[in-house]
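Mods, move this if it's the wrong board.
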Amino acid sequence: VQLVESGGALVQPGGSLTLSCVASGFTFTTAALVWARQAPEKELEWISTIYADGRPDYADSVKGRSTISRDNRNNTVYLQMNSLKPEDTAVYYCNAYGFWGQGTQVTVSS
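Not the wrong board. Structure tokens:
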């Protein structure tokens, strides 16, 4: 299993960002795909899941500001984040079947 995240950047408060995670090594179409994040000196926080049927689920901390989606043809899961806040600063990881990618850094700062 391999998961490769990308799309992290430095953005200003109120800005938007779309993270991508390209997966390989498993049957993508039947997998539930997860995004989580870890801020400095904080525990890993689950933020969103998209199930095999396309149903999304969100943590309260990002609900209404984020959209998770999947492209089964290209084995990619996305996380679009809007109205970014400084507290969204973290390393963002994707997960499938208990496997994690290396993460991508998102920094929200003016």
